[in-house]
Amino acid sequence: MDVSRLLDGLNDEQREAVGAPLSNMLVLAGAGSGKTRVLTHRIAWLMQVEQQSPYSILAVTFTNKAAAEMRERVEKVAGSNMGRMWIGTFHGLAHRLLRTHFQDANLPQSFQIIDSDDQLRLLKRILKSLNLDEKQYPPRQAQGYINGKKDQGLRPKHIDAGGFPIEQNLLNIYKVYQESCDRAGLVDFAEILLRAHELWLNKPHLLAHYQERFKHILVDEFQDTNAIQYAWIRVLAGNSANVMIVGDDDQSIYGWRGAQVENLHKFLQDFPGSSTIRLEQNYRSSANILNASNELIANNPDRLGKKLWTEDKDGEPISIYCAFNEMDEARYIVSRIQDWQEKGGALTDCAILYRSNAQSRVLEEAFLHKGMAYRIYGGLRFFERQEIKDAMGYMRLINNHNDDAAFERIVNTPTRGIGDRTLDIMRTTARQHQLTLWQASLRLLEEKVLAGRAANAVRGFMDLIVDLKVDTEAMQLFTMVDTVVNTSGLRSMYQAEKGEKAQSRIENLNELVTAARSFEMPEELEDMGELNAFLSHAALEAGEGQADAFTDAVQLMTLHSAKGLEFPMVFMAGVEEGIFPSKMALDEGDRLDEERRLCYVGMTRAMEKLTISYAESRRIYGREDYASPSRFIGEIPAKYVEEIRLRAKVTTPTMSSKISKPRATIAQDTGFKIGQTVKHFKFGQGDITSFEGMGDKARVQVNFTDVGSKWLLVTLAKLEAC
Ligand code: ATP
Ligand code: MG
Questions:
Q1: From CA 571, how far away is CA 353, in angstroms rounded?
Q2: Which one, of 31, 191, 65, lies nearest residue 561 by Cα?
Q3: Do 258 and 291 belong together in one domain?
Q4: Domain-embedded: residue 106
Q5: What Rg, from alpha-carbon coordinates, does the chain have?
Q6: Using the 8-state DSSP alphabet, how is residue 224 labeled?
């Protein structure tokens, strides 16, 4: 075995961490300093030098993508098969435990995971059944309350609501919600972790088994663990495991979801004999990008404080682009990526990061317009799309008739004459007799409480589900999906809708069949059956590793989901006050530091080139808003920056001759100008925002009030000036 190979490509501090004697260890270091690299090499070291079995190793990462990458990297370094090593996210690993020990966890074998949408729907129903007004008890607030308590490891019985009526009611909602989930065999995200933790506490024999097994626990991105995740690791580690955690307090960005950066300090107290290793050399970014990021984060108080330096050259300055509006911003980004591509760069090396998912739409439009491939991580994920969730709802109800969330979702999709009144009767009966909706419906039919048309409609729906179950039992998964999509009426429902949106829904449904066809059963879940595994896969992975993973495509994602990743070319879009930092962070002063850490995370993803852009005006909720550049831009010293204001060049008299001339010609050609309001026979009224091309090829971009932005050929569009 060649030990030096494992230490190749590491600096002294990294080597110290990788080759340390077996013990507890904290690697605390800034972005791009090689923490993840150290973790990966350490796993290989444990196996090859310390002769530890992969079976005894548990590695926790933050996303499924990171887990897959780590497995691959370790296999490359260690050159052996890691099949028996447990590596995954907290949720993924806890889910695996619950599946394996469903009885000990007090769950039915076919338990299903519900996402936050399903959870909200369920809560709405519960609020209604408790006669609580949604205005006084917004479902989202109840959801936040329940998830927050679960993240802290608290069941209703642990909570003392004191004499406060609102708190009392929230507690009661939590109780009723949990009872209803338990009856239906449903598990929400926070519940996965809570149950896995309770499994340790309530089943000492299981805990002993896993403590015996996992001698080595390694956790990446430790600064973003919450209380329950920390407790889970703490209990599992007991007094014998060796725990290595790596993290960076400056990249703690999930405080809003209950993550506790203090866990880094707590670790040192709770895990005896821990050593701390600091890494200070950054290998990712050019000096300009690194120094600018360091200066930005220095504005935060209460940091553990780290020095990061690089041997790299200054590199290009950070470009700050001031856009006229969000469409101009998208166009600029696309044109820079085109330049990059023309010089031989790969699209996949370019990432666009934004604060909130909604910002992706305009960018997507710009890419579609140019015919440039792009991929979205997170956000509008495949399995989160409406039509996919409808189809999965059928699959889930076929799999488990007591799945209330699925029942609610599809009982009247497509519409089959089951009205709100009938549904209310079902819900009330379910609530009164502690039944699931399916059981309640059966009872209502048997007792003839439902009669006539309503009864027929409900019976028809239930027959459909039962028939589908029988008919698809022996089918292969993908044939089953196809049958369900057709027989349920979903396909014809969307076919009957007109327009592009409906078309893309049909395409998505087709893609679901493809997804089922290419679904590979994870070895460790073989016992649970293919359908169950597929349903869990849909709920857990929600679009990570999309179908077109091999196409060269620009990567679009939120700043949050960019954590841990790196790209040669990074754009941060929409860096405006009210967007980033978000309005919410501005309203609640203490969230500003976390937004700045998010900005630090974003900037430090860039290796060669970083471009930050903001728009002077932006359409939000269909309204034009004027924005000012984010304070974070002001915090980057000018010496690292080059400002770009193309529009200013157009409007500044001294510069205008060069750039505005062709535009003026087009304007003369077409008779239209930017900002002008026009009318289209089909799309209605809108404002001209841009144009390109000449003569027959002249096109204008119009932002229509009703249908949004469109590019139109002037010769064909028959636009009328208003
Ligand atoms: P983040 O905080 O963003 O998660 P990190 O500390 O985990 O960053 P890595 O992703 O492990 O950093 O490393 C950043 C980049 O630097 C990677 O491309 C990695 O391969 C490279 N790198 C790390 N250490 C070295 C080294 N000693 N020599 C050369 N390259 C290195
Ligand atoms: Mg990392």
A1: 6
A2: 65
A3: no
A4: no
A5: 28
A6: G
What residues pair up with 309 in beta bridges, in sequence order? 281
642 DSSP β-pair partners: 319
Residues 704 and 625 in one domain: no
By residue range, what is the domain housing residue 666?
651-721
User: What's the Cα-to-Cα distance from 372 to each of 356, 546, 567, 569, 692, rounded to whole Å?
Assistant: 22, 17, 18, 16, 18
Side chain identity at residue 309, one-letter code: W
Residues 406 and 476 in one domain: yes
Report the atom number in ligand 1 closest to the C-alpha of 14: 27
- The tens digit of pLDDT for each residue in 7-59 reads 888 999 999 999 999 999 999 999 999 999 999 999 999 998 999 999 999 99
Do 467 and 350 share a domain, yes or no?
Answer: no
Pocket mutation for ligand 1, best pick of 221, 283, 560 (most atoms within 8 Å of C-beta)? 283
Inter-CA distances, 310 with 279, 304, 380, 637, Å: 12, 20, 37, 18
What CATH code is carried by the domain that includes residue 703? Answer: 2.40.10
Which ligand is closest to the CA of 27, given by its number? 1
Is the model's pLDDT at 409 over the cut of 60?
yes
- 609 labelled binding-site residue: no
Tell which atom from ligand 1 comes closest to the C-alpha of 601: 3
Q: Does residue 228 register a pLDDT over 90? A: yes
Mean per-residue pLDDT, 368-373: 80
Helix (H) or strand (E) holding 342: helix 326-342
Residue that terminates a domain, selected from 644, 667, 700: 644
Helices (H) and strands (E) in the chain, counts: 30, 21
36 is catalytic: yes
Return the best residue to mutate from 36, 252, 285 for the ligand 1 pocket (most ligand atoms within 8 A of CB). Answer: 36
Which ligand number lies closest to the CA of residue 279?
1
* 391, 482: one domain: yes
Active site residue 605: yes
d(CA 534, CA 520): 9
For residue 226, give the nearest of 252, 250, 195, 199 by alpha carbon: 252
* CATH code of 417's domain: 1.10.486.10
User: Which of residues 644, 664, 679 is at a domain's end?
Assistant: 644
237 in a structural domain: yes
In a domain? residue 374? yes
pLDDT at residue 361 greater than cutoff 80: no
Rounded to whole angstroms, the Cα distance separating 678 from 722 reads 5
Whether 35 has a binding-site annotation, put simply, is yes
Separation of alpha carbons 235 and 22, rounded Å:
19
What count of other Cβ atoms lies within 10 Å of the Cβ of residue 125? 22
Confirm whether 107 is domain-assigned: no
What's the rounded Cα separation, in Å, for the pair 299 and 70? 33
Atom 31 in ligand 1: which residue has the minimum CA distance? 283
Q: How many domains does the chain have?
A: 5
The CATH number of whichever domain residue 604 belongs to comes to 3.40.50.300
The closest-lying atom of ligand 1 relative to the alpha carbon of residue 605 is 3
* 3-state SS assignment for residue 678: strand
Tokens found for residue 636: 């980057």
Residues 490 and 512 in one domain: yes
Domain co-membership, 377 together with 341: yes
What tens digit of pLDDT does each residue of 537-580 get? 777 654 343 335 567 899 999 899 899 999 999 999 999 999 99
**C-beta neighbour count of 434 within 10 angstroms:** 11
The two beta strands, 699-704 and 708-713, are antiparallel
Question: Do 436 and 295 sit in the same domain of this protein?
Answer: no
pLDDT in tens, 306-336: 879 999 999 999 999 999 988 899 999 999 9
Distance (Å) from CA 282 to ligand 2 centroid: 12
